[in-house]
Design the sequence.
């Protein structure tokens, strides 16, 4: 009897322990789903307190540069902070930046690095792919870092990034920004193992209608959305396509709250509008964003800010250059009506009074807690001090070190004046729509002292040719 009782007690204790473990695992799983999964690469390459080193060993670097337009991967050995990774895929990347780098006979391309391109299980501490951003038309080297920090501050899932000094075949190549690509590892890090699907919609030709890139509902057929589904960044099945199409249908009917994670997307648009990035969903191109769908609802996540802060002119027949116009650009109509009406993820949200009010209310803590708290200035000073020695010796830089310093000061002025303008728009002192601006011309902050060309312009591309070709020749001669 005693033995049976003891056995019963042991069984009961075992059951209790099992239930406790199950409960703990359940809690852990819910936390992982809510907060994402810690990834090993976060504290390695993406430790942003220092400049990392990336050494690329490759058979023919000149061929990669000459054939950059083909965007074809070639193998290399990559040493990241003294860790060696073999059979890594590398290629040039970009849209207009890729084309213009070639047209100006330059050699400094942004690069895509894929650890599992040749080796199915290849990865960098759990990361399958990253980009090396060349800071094309960004003399400050800070636009993406700053925009990403603003997004992160506002609670938007954002790629990790850090600076890296890149060498090719033993020769210095320059200071690049390493950026976490938004694929499987990014999805797990931000949304947990049981995440939804990531897409990076992009156009095949800017002359096409590109309704799917604009997230407009077309019909029920997945084949009508090639610019979305052909750019899935995580595994996708037919049911995923159906859910996304249904979300677009609901969005087109004004069923916003059932189709969109409204709070998160509004936070994204607060920063997107602040940084005046028109090479984006809110601009003529309509691309350069990451789309995330989970359980039939959509998120918009940040990507590509080298042409932000009012410096986008590519693709515009008559680009606006007046800093008074750009820095005072209205927050309620951040693009012309012909564009806004074709951007339902912004337009439909702003048609809802409660969501429009929430959008306005989110600006206030952003302006106060990000800028007035000193975070902005501290970040600017910290990053400038970190990269200054590397910018000085960058052999393929698009600008001189003096031009870089001017760009950092200009970026500071742009953000300060943009903050003043938006504060005035929120308070009703300055026009917040294009129609109001037409009725009140010249009303807004005075930004005439700012020359936005200092942030990066076409003259910089012309002046960089000799410097970049000389760096390329050193690598070629070293072989």
Sequence:
């Amino acid at each position: 009897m005693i033995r049976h009782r003891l056995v019963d007690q042991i069984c009961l204790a075992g059951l209790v322990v099992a239930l406790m473990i199950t409960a703990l695992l359940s809690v852990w799983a819910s936390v992982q789903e809510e907060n994402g999964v810690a990834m090993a690469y976060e504290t390695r390459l993406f430790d942003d307190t220092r400049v990392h080193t990336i050494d690329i060993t490759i058979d023919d670097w000149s061929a990669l540069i000459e054939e950059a337009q083909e965007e074809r991967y070639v193998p290399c050995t990559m040493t990241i902070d003294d860790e060696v990774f073999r059979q890594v895929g590398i290629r040039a990347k970009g849209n207009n930046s890729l084309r213009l780098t070639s047209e100006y006979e330059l050699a400094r391309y942004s690069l895509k690095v894929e650890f599992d391109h040749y080796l199915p299980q290849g990865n960098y501490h759990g990361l399958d792919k990253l980009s090396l951003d060349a800071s094309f038309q960004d003399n400050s080297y800070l636009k993406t870092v700053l925009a990403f920090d603003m997004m992160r501050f506002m609670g938007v899932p954002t790629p990790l990034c850090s600076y890296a000094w890149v060498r090719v075949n033993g020769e210095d190549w320059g200071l690049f920004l390493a950026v976490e690509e938004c694929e499987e590892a990014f999805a797990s890090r931000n949304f947990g193992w049981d995440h939804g699907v990531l897409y990076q919609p992009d156009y095949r030709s800017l002359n096409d209608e590109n309704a799917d890139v604009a997230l407009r509902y077309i019909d029920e057929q997945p084949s009508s959305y090639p610019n979305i589904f052909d750019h899935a960044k995580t595994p996708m099945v037919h049911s995923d396509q159906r859910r996304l199409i249904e979300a677009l249908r609901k969005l087109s009917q004004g069923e916003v709250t059932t189709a969109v994670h409204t709070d998160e997307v509004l936070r994204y648009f607060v920063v997107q509008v602040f940084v005046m990035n028109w090479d984006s969903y809110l601009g003529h191109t309509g691309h350069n964003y990451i789309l995330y769908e989970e359980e039939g609802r959509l998120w918009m996540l940040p990507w590509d800010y080298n042409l932000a802060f009012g410096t986008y002119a590519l693709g515009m027949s008559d680009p606006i250059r007046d800093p008074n116009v750009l820095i005072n650009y209205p927050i309620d109509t951040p693009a012309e009506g012909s564009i806004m009406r074709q951007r339902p993820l912004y337009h439909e949200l702003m048609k809802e009074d409660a969501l429009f009010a929430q959008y306005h209310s989110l600006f206030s803590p952003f302006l106060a807690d990000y800028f007035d708290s000193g975070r902005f200035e501290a970040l600017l000073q910290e990053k400038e001090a970190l990269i200054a020695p590397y910018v000085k010796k960058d052999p393929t830089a698009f600008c001189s070190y003096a031009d870089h310093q001017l760009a950092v000061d200009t970026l500071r002025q742009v953000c300060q004046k943009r903050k003043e303008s938006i504060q005035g728009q929120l308070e009703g002192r300055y026009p917040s729509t294009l129609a109001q601006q037409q009725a009140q011309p010249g009303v807004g902050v005075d930004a005439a002292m700012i020359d936005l060309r200092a942030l990066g312009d076409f003259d910089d591309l012309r002046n960089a040719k000799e410097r970049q070709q000389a760096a390329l020749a050193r690598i070629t001669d070293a072989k």
Summary: The first strand starts at residue 52 and ends at 57.
